[in-house]
Specification:
Layout (H helix, E strand, L loop, with lengths): L3 H4 L13 E4 L5 E4 L4 E2 L34
Antiparallel strand pairs: 1-2, 2-3
Length: 73
């Protein structure tokens, strides 16, 4: 299946969302690879396979404070 159709072609490889990478350590600061490598979360190797379910979504921006006058016509 061609995943680039759904997720774009500009995915920067990183072990933290690789199919073979598993978080290790107390805070997940180290990644243990099923291919036998230990790496930092932002590192990558030639075995990288993108797994979209491992991505953490960005936090939603705050909306700020509104007054009832802001919604009057």
């Amino acid at each position: 299946m061609n995943l680039s159709k759904y997720y774009g072609k500009n995915i920067v490889p990183a072990c933290r969302y690789c199919l073979y990478g598993k978080a290790a350590g107390e805070n997940g600061e180290q990644i243990t690879c099923e291919k036998g490598k230990n790496a930092a979360p932002n590192a990558s190797c030639g075995a990288f396979r993108y797994e979209p379910t491992l991505r953490q979504p960005k936090e939603a921006p705050s909306l700020g404070q509104f007054k009832p006058e802001d919604f009057m016509l």
